[in-house]
Each structure stands twice: as structure tokens, then as C-alpha cells.
Amino acid sequence: MKIIKESNISTIIIVSTIFIISSLMLFNGYFFISKQYEILQAQIEDTKKTFVENKRNVLKREVDAIIEFIEFKKSRTNFTEPSALEALHHEVYDWIRHIRYGGQEHNYIFVYQVEHMSGGDKFAKMLINPNRPDLEGEYISDAYTDENGKAFRKIFLQDIHEKGYSFVEYIYKKPDSNIIRPKVSYFKLYKEWNIIIAAGAYTDDIDKEIDIAKAAFKKKMELEITSAIIIFLLFALIANTFAVMLGKRIERFLNTYHKQVQQKTLELENLNKTLESRVTEEIKKNREQEQLLIQKSKFIALGEMISNIAHQWRQPLSQLSALLMTLKLKYNMDKLDKTAMEIKCVEAENIVEYMSHTIDDFRNFFMPNKDKKMFSIQTSIDDVLRIIAMSITNQEIEIEVNILHDEFIIGYKSEYEQVVLNLLSNAKDAIITSGRQGGKITISLESDEQMVRLSIEDNGGGIKIAPIEKIFEPYVSTKEQNEGTGIGLYMAKLIIEKSMRGKLEVRNENGGAIFTIELEKGFKETLGGSPL
Description:
This protein is of the alpha+beta class. The chain has four domains: 1-76 and 206-255, no CATH class; 108-203, PAS domain (Beta-Lactamase), CATH 3.30.450; 307-359; 368-520, Heat Shock Protein 90 (2-Layer Sandwich), CATH 3.30.565. 56% of the residues lie in helices and 16% in strands. The protein has helices at residues 9-75, 84-97, 152-163, 205-255, 257-332, 338-366, 377-393, 413-434, 488-499; strands spanning 109-114, 124-128, 139-140, 165-173, 180-190, 195-202, 373-376, 398-402, 408-411, 440-447, 451-458, 503-509, 512-520. The strands form three sheets. The chain has a six-stranded antiparallel sheet with strand order 3-2-1-6-5-4. Strands 8-10-11-13-12 form a five-stranded mixed sheet.
């Protein structure tokens, strides 16, 4: 029996269209919602990890500051008097008892007097514990466990025996309440007095942030689902209208075949007349797409720059934090004289000036070049290494620069540096991905009478894509799907070959990849114009 007939062709088209669109919408909706939940969970885990890490840094800083204070007080104490040591103990312990940090009353310092480092039922006395004053002066056991059965004292004793300090996560009662909450504490042994100084912080504050995020996500999902339903109904209406029109059109086509042939012939003639304008329009669209790729490449580079700023600023920020802590201690102890203040101010100004220079380096890197200018390759390499070298060397990767003599070329300096930065970043990622020990990146500059060649070589295992030239095509990447966009090398090739009329080539050699940028020496062209 014939199912499709001229009399029911419109109905079949309508039903088929609704079924296909409904299936696609349901599948896309399910995929979208599932993906959003995965993203939310990943964000929650990342937030928790960052929160705990920040807490750990605060605890370590507080305990280290107390030990530094004790050492400072010892250096100022005359121990020839019999009661000097006991007085010093009393002063320090009284000071510790009243310390609160992080703006939270329940963030306090507690101290153990160690009797037996090997552990046991009376391994230590509780000297200070503002949360549990009932335990002060009492012997404590390393067999004590929290509500989850975790013997955290055994854990920190083992760590202190091996490293001298310990971070432990457990659950404990909050001050002035019977509420049990998760907590992270930092324990450090002060050998001279045979005491363990510890600081703890409750980590349940992050639960409030997570609840807020979940509520916002739920509201967002309700809005997304409502929007999806409205869009579905709209598309269904359009699809039905289109299906009815298409069905009627097919019916008319079957009844008036000759008329349709004449109409198509006329349309073909009109198409031939407008072909040139349509080709021009498509070329324009391709150029617009190319500009979008360039913009996307800029944003990706900006994200990498932010990561590099973090690497550049980490050490000066730590120095500035230590300097401020020293000033605070001296001020609290009335030891801050004019000379010390001036010295510390000069140190702080030097650190701030270094950070300011770092910002200038990054700002100059992203400053657009409208005109071609002569610039030094050596200077460009130095500028790029100031930006990215720390993030490379932090991965235990060696950078070797072989530039016997400098060369000058005419072009767009910031775009050239963007290409070099991209190649160095890819080399670093290749070495990290390969898991190779003793990673090395070599930058070499060679030249002859006409050409200047800059080579960037790594030992990250080489490029596995074949043919290897395909690596320069858009959206082709050797990285994992979520780690690379596949447009960095495509944009680099456009900049070198179209903007600066050079060559960018790659080959595998000596267990790695070698990228070569080749440019004419003494680039002969009227200066001016804009880069890609």
C-alpha cells in the first residue's frame, strides 16, 4: 500500500517536521541542563579547594608570626635573672591566649606542651585553648578522635615528626556552642620550648556561598527552561507554517509542472545576474570571520597574560606581606623608630615599583601597532621572556637563548611578540603534557645577507599530526578539547606571512618540534597601514 500520496503529502511533512524538531529540542535541552549541572559541580569543587587553600595560608602565616615574635622577645630578654624565662613564658602565653585573626572570634591559637613526641595517652598537656578552657593544664591523648572517628592528633604528630609541621582537616566544636563543624588546623613544633603551636579555622562558611550559588543556579535553570519552552513553541509554529506552505507548494508543483520549470528558469537567469554581487558578499563575510578569529585570539592571549601576571606578582606580594607584618609587630611593641620606618618604606617602594614595571610590560605588550616600525629582535625576545619566563621555569623547564648578535626588522612589534609568546607557550605545554623530565626550550637567532631566522625548539616529543603542516589550520590542536582552541598557530601564520611577508614553518627533530620564523632583512616597504 502506498503511504505517501499527493493527497496527504502536506500532513506527512507537518508531522515529520514536528517530530524531528521536538526530538532535537528535547535532546538539546537535556544535554544543556546536564552540562550546566556539571559546570556548577566543578565550580563548587574549585571554590571549596580555593577556600581551604586560602585558610591554610592564613593559618601558616599566623603561626609563623607567633614563632617570629617569640624569637624576637627572646633576643630582647636578659636570661641572667632566674625568673626571666618564666616571665617570658607567661608574657607570650598570655599574648597568644587573646589573639584572634581573620575578623572571626572563633579563630584562635592553641598550644600543646609536648611530653612524649612518640604519642600516647599523655603525650602532651593543653597549655592554651580559648575554645576549651576546661582542658587547659590537662593531659591529652593522641587516641582522641573527632565525630567521624578521625584520630587527627596521631596524624599531626606523625607529620611533625617527619616535616616539623602539619595541616589536618577534621570536625570540631565551635566556640560557645555545641555545633560540630569542619575545621582545618596548622600545627608547628617550636623545639626550643618543646611546644606545638597551632591555629585552626572553620571551613563551613563556604557552605553558605555554595547554597547561594545553588539557589542562583536553580533560578537560572527555571528561566532557561521557560525560555527553551517559548523558543520551542515559536519554532514549532514557524515549522508548522513552513511545512504547510511547503506541502501546498509541492502540491501545486505536481499540478503545474510546466509552470514551475519556467519559474525556475527565470530564477536561474536572475541568479546569473546577481552572481558577482553574491560572491563579493561571501568574500566580505569571510573577512569578517577572519577578524572574529583575530579578536578571539586576542582574548585568549589576554587570559594567558593574566596567568603570567599572577606568576610575576606572587613573590613581591609575599615580600610585601612579610614587610607589613614586621611593621605591625614593631608598632605593637613600640619598637618602630624613624630609621626602621624609613628603611621599610624604601623596601616597600622598591617592591611596588617592580610590580608597576610588570604592569607596564604587560600593557606595552597589548598596545596596538598601527604603523610598521623598525625594532630589535633581541629586545622583543627579552620583553616576551619577562612576561612568560617565570611561568616556564616554575615548571622546571630550562630556557636557553642563543643570540650571538642582534638583528633589526621592520614590522609590527607587538604582533611579532604575540607570535613568539604563542610558540613559547605551546612549547611549555608540549613538555608538560609529555611528562618529560629535564624539559628545555631553545631560542636561536641566525641570519645571512637577506634573511633573519628565529627558531624555537623544545624536547616535548614533537607534533603527532600528519601532515605536520596541518597544525597551522584553524581549530586544529594537539591539546585536549578543553585546553586548546586551535587558532593560536593559525593566527601566528597569518601575522607572519600576511602582515610581515615572512614564513612560519615547523618540523620534528631531536625528540621535539622546531618552529622557525623567517623574515627578510631590511624589509623594503613603505611604512604605514594596519596589521591583520
